[in-house]
């Protein structure tokens, strides 16, 4: 049985927010809107009150913005997934949201089916970046690798060879089960390695892992873009 996704919608434009909520309630899906907020501070409070699985987060809002709200939510409620939904297609906003802890970034002009699939993807622990932004974002991170072309062990922040193998696999969309099958190890062992990777790199999720892998030249921009579009990162 498919789990119902509890969703909190955060946007300071009441007409847009109302239309979005109406769309989500009218479309057949496993998404239940459990609350609405019009600024970041209210969103942080409502996460505690409504216990959502996913927060659909606007960025530019009066009061606390979406970047700071995302940061606070992830610090207090690390299991809650954040999907940014913004009118801004600047890669800098994407990177700031990802650094704050967002698992994905959608544009407000996206087709409704893409927004719904994005919510479902981040709930499952996957990455989802709007196709129009994916190329720019991953290319920007790949460009950073040219300033540090070394490929020795020190350039990977203490990751072991096994951890690098697993990082490359999850960054290109492999699930924990697929990694376990590929490497002939248990899923529990994979989970342990992933937690070690996140701790060593000081990252929170697969979106950040994918960006790191691109920046370090572990995977190609094309691999990352395909992952972002498919929602498997």
Provide a quick synopsis of the model.
The protein is of the alpha/beta class and about 230 residues long.
How would you describe what is shown here?
With about 230 residues, this protein is an alpha/beta fold. The chain is built from eleven helices and six strands. It has two domains: about 5-125, Rossmann fold, CATH 3.40.50.2300; about 140-230, Rossmann fold, CATH 3.40.50. It has a six-stranded parallel sheet, with helices on both faces.
CATH-level-4 superfamily name of the largest domain: Response regulator
What is the average of the pLDDT values?
Answer: 84
Rg of Cα set: 17 Å
Which structural class do you get from the secondary structure elements? alpha/beta
Residue ranges: pLDDT <50 for 5 or more in a row?
A: 149-153, 229-233
Q: In order across it, which strands form the biggest sheet?
A: 2-1-3-4-5-6
CATH topology of the largest domain: Rossmann fold
Key terms for this structure?
Rossmann fold; 2 domains; six-stranded parallel beta sheet; 233 residues; 6 strands; alpha/beta
């Amino acid at each position: 049985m498919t789990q119902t996704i509890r969703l909190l919608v955060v946007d300071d434009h009441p007409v847009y927010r109302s239309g979005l909520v109406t769309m989500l309630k009218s479309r057949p899906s496993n998404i239940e809107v459990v609350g609405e907020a019009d600024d970041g501070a209210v969103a942080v409070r409502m996460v505690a009150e409504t216990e959502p699985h996913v927060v659909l987060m606007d960025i530019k809002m009066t009061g606390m913005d979406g970047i700071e709200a995302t940061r606070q939510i992830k610090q207090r409620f690390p299991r809650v997934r954040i999907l940014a939904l913004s009118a801004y297609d600047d890669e800098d906003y994407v990177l700031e949201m990802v650094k704050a802890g967002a698992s994905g970034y959608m544009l407000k002009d996206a087709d409704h089916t893409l927004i719904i699939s994005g919510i479902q993807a981040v709930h499952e622990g996957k990455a989802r970046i709007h196709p129009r932004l994916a190329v720019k974002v991953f290319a920007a991170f790949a460009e950073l690798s040219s300033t540090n072309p070394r490929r020795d062990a020190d350039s990977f922040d203490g990751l072991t060879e096994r951890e690098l193998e697993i990082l490359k696999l999850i960054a290109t969309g492999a699930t924990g089960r697929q990694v376990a099958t590929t490497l002939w190890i248990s899923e529990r062992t994979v989970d342990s390695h992933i937690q070690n990777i996140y701790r060593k790199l000081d990252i929170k999720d697969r979106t950040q892992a994918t960006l790191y892998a691109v920046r370090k030249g572990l995977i190609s921009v094309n691999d990352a873009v395909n992952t972002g579009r498919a929602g498997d990162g």
